[in-house]
Amino acid sequence: MRKTRFISVCLCVVAVSACTRSAEQAKRDYIERGDKYAQANNLDAAIIEYRNAIQRDPKFAEAYQKLATTYVSRGDGPNALRNAVTAADLSPDSPDAQLQAGNLLLVAGKFDDAKARAEKVLAKSPQSARARVLLASAMAGLKDVDTAVKELEEAIRLDPKQAAAYASLAVLKAGQGDRAAAEKTFQQAIAADPTSVSARLALAQFYWVSGRTADAEAGMKEAIKVAPSDQRANGLLSVFYQLTGRAAEAEPYLRTAAEAEPTGAATIRLADYYVAQNRHEAATPLLNRAKTDGKYGPIASIRLAELAQLDGRPDEAISIVDGVLKADPKNVMALSAKADLLRRQRKLDDASKAADAAIAADRMSPSAKLARGRVLVAQGHLAEAEQAFKETLQLSPRAAAPQVELARLHVQTGASDSVELATKAAKADPGSLSTRLTLVRALAQKRDYAEAQETLKVLLKAAPESPAVHALMGTVLMKTGDTAGARAEYDKALERDPLQLEAIEGLTSLDFKAQHGPAAIARLESLLERAPRNAGVLMLSAAAYASVKDLPRAEQSLLKALEVDPGLMPAYGTLGRIYLVQNKLDAAKAQFEKMVAAQEKPVAALTMVGMIEQMQSRLPEAEQTFQKVLRLDPRAGVAANNLAWIYAERGANLDTALQLAQAAKAAMPDQPQVNDTLGWVYFKKDMLPMALSTLQHTLELDSNNGPASYHLALVYEKSGNRAEAKRLLQQSLKLNPSADFSADAKRRLETLGS
Fold first, then answer.
1. Tens-place pLDDT, residues 560-596
2. N or C terminus of the chain with fewer C-beta within 10 Å?
3. Do the Cβ atoms of 146 and 178 come closer than 8 Å?
4. Which three-class secondary structure string do you get for 327-358?
5. Distance CA 648, CA 694 (A)
6. φ and ψ at 584, to 5 degrees?
7. Cα dihedral 519/525/530/534 (nearest 10)
8. How confident is the model at residue 496 (pLDDT cuts 50, 70, 90)?
9. What secondary structure does DSSP assign to 617-659, as a single string?
10. Distance CA 308, CA 367 (A)
11. Which residues, at least 6 apart from 535, have a Cβ–Cβ distance to it below 8 Å?
12. Who's near 321: CB < 8 A, 6+ residues apart?
């Protein structure tokens, strides 16, 4: 009996031992498979295998550590940090685990926690140079530079051949203003490890920021001699050439980097370079190659969608992004891109839904917040947009894009700090063409044309094939009176992009001023044959036809423009004036009422009905119609503006009038009539400082605006500035001698003693 029991116990022990070995072997098998996937750059598969190992053993520190490393390779910082910290907590005696966690904490800006990890290693291994470097970096982050310098010096003493320690010490010396010591230390880093590409690039960057561009270029080329295929060296030199007006010299280095990474980030950077050079045919095959990559495929697909949009294939653009979302419905990057594409296609309701979906997928995503802010700008909700951009910056303080958008917003609204913001944005993203174009527009808005031209000259060296740069140079030259130079730049823009709207508008304006109206119209008609649904060209065509008194064709162009884009607010006013001149108000009203009956959400048609009623002085009916429009779409800018005007003229509902006028201003910040309405409401509410600044801005937008001159005169009169009041009353009568306000203007002039 005892023997039987003994045998039974032995069998149990053997079974438990076999199970233990089986579990141990299973988790090792997962790790081994994960390592193979990681070596093959199949990061998603590697992550699955490492997670399987953790399921087998939730305290398996090695699996957490490998998982963290894989997330670093995939660019997923939060997951990398979480797994690295778990690995370090599970293996407190492992220096590698502590240092991995510490360095990721450093990147995340958690300097106290990084310091604690370094000190934990040093408590057991005081001679660890790597731990000293980590501690020094943490102390630098905590603004204790003296301690950081001491720790780096100790790290160098412990390991004199550690180039990274020299480079970090040199950065601190430079930060302390000791450039000579910094340069010497950078050179010591290279001497410690002549094969270190990082050390050579650090010295080159030091030269670059010090203004020693020739030394910087030479240093980068030395790094490439050490490692000809190194992506960092080739990438940095390509950026250097692009930012110093030598963009053509960047291409071979970008191509070298792309050859080393045929489906990765370097290939996408080369494609971006070609797009910036307007060489879409060169970018497309690169992106098609990269879209097969497990890590960078979605990015490449989104770039292809952007190219389709740029090349006039909007449906294809959305289809490409939807393909990414089919595979990953909560891909924040794809949802944000879809919102941006729909915004550019003026499908603002759908764009708003896509932006909301991006935020729902990740409420802490800067790209989702940024996309939502851009949609809000397009919808005219500028205050909400500004808040969205500020939230983006809170999530990503160093990001350039939200700074750029804030700058554009302030340029759009004519804010006094527009140049300051645009300059800051340009410094944050010096390689962005659109950012520096925003700076030029801010400078031009402030009439600093000399500085605007200097900035554009640099841009033309960096991007000689950019239609936008040539077009903006044309606009700046036209403002300075250089019509020949302006025409030449507009022509260059249209050679590169026949539908560049700023260039088309500029050339049309120059042609009409030179009495060459038929040539301007012929050009516009040719463009419409190529792009019959281009709302911008349709609007320019309408203005051209109206200039030569061809009102029927102007009317047709405006109706087509509104069919393409019902939110094209300036078209309504122009169309209304055409009907008024033609004495077709009743017939036009009947036509638009039929459209109202036929449409589910007839915002555009109903707005035109209200405008016609207003022109016919049927103000109660117009008031009711605009109220209907705003019930359909509370963001309808024209209806809000016109209803605010009706209330202000009547002297009733002034609080509501102010809300409506402010909403209209948000929707159409640069429309003189909208600014005039807002200023007039401020005047009616006796808010004279606000009325003064708003009406002054109206005349900045349109110096020939008679009603605004009259309204501003009344503000000055009430403020006691009789001289300015007289001047503006005289100006209003000169501009509009038979306007409704003319009798009152003459009476006031007599009172003022003219």
1. 887 777 666 677 767 877 887 788 888 788 877 877 8
2. N
3. no
4. HCCCCHHHHHHHHHHHHHCCCHHHHHHHHHHH
5. 16
6. -115, 25
7. 110
8. confident
9. T-HHHHHHHHHHHHHH-TT-HHHHHHHHHHHHHHT--HHHHHH
10. 21
11. 346, 561, 564, 565, 568
12. 301, 302, 305, 334, 337, 338, 341
124's enclosing H/E stretch is: helix 111-124
Instruction: Determine contact, residues 160/168, Cβ cutoff 8 Å.
Output: no
- The residues, any chain, with a CB within 8 Å of residue 221's CB and separated by 6 or more, are 237
Measure CA of the first residue to CA of the last residue in the chain; give whole Å. 131
Buried b or exposed e, range 492-530, using 16+ CB within 10 angstroms: bbbebbeebbbbbbbbbbbbbeeeebeebbebbeebbee
209-237 pLDDT per residue, tens: 677 888 888 988 998 998 888 888 888 88
State the Cα angle at 388 between 350 and 321, rounded to 5°: 35
Residue 384's identity, in one-letter code, is E
Task: Quote the DSSP letter at residue 247.
Answer: G
Q: How far lies 496's CA from each of 280, 511, 557, 608, in Å?
A: 12, 20, 26, 38
CA distance 437 to 455: 9
With beta carbons less than 8 A apart as the criterion, state whether 473 and 489 touch: yes
Q: What is the largest CA-CA distance in the chain?
A: 131
Query: Burial code of 551-579, b = ≥16 C-beta within 10 A, e = fewer?
Result: bebbbebbbbbbebbbbbbbbbbbbbebb
DSSP 86: H
Q: Structure pTM?
A: 0.58
CA distance 194 to 728: 74
Q: What is the residue type of 548? A: V
Q: Which two tokens stand for residue 443?
A: 């400078």
Reported as half-sphere exposure (CB side, CA atoms, 13 A), residue 272 has a value of 19
Q: CB-based burial of residue 482 (10 Å sphere; 0-12 exposed, 13-18 middle, 19+ buried)?
A: middle
Q: What is the DSSP string of 164-197?
A: HHHHHHHHHHHHTT-HHHHHHHHHHHHHH-TT-H
Q: How far apart are CA 586 and CA 199, in angstroms?
A: 78
Q: Which two tokens stand for residue 531?
A: 């792009």
Total residues found in the chain within this entry: 754
Give CA–CA dist 667/568, Å, rounded. 11
CB 462 within 8 A of CB 243: yes
Name the burial class of residue 147, with classes exposed (0-12), middle (13-18) and buried (19+) by CB atoms within 10 angstroms of its CB.
middle
Confidence of residue 544 (pLDDT cuts 50, 70, 90): very high
User: Mind spelling out the 3-state secondary structure of 506-575?
Assistant: HHHHHHHHCCCHHHHHHHHHHHHHHCCCCHHHHHHHHHHHHHCCCHHHHHHHHHHHHHHCCCCHHHHHHH
Euclidean distance between CA atoms 622 and 639, whole angstroms = 10
Spatial CA neighbour of 674 closest among 410, 446, 414, 438:
414
- Stretch 296-324: mean pLDDT, rounded? 90
Quote the pLDDT of residue 11.
44
Dist. CA 251–CA 283, nearest whole Å: 12
Residue written as tokens 């909400």?
384
User: Nearest to residue 475, comparing CAs of 458, 492, 462?
Assistant: 492
- Per the model's pLDDT, the better-predicted residue between 645 and 633 turns out to be 645
Q: Which tops the pLDDT comparison, 569 or 744?
A: 744
Could you tell me if residue 499 is left (phi over 0), alpha (psi between -120 and 50 degrees) or otherwise beta? Answer: alpha
Amino acid in the structure at residue 746: K
Q: What is the Cα–Cα distance from 711 to 641, expressed in whole angstroms?
A: 16
Are the CB atoms for 548 and 517 separated by under 8 Å?
yes
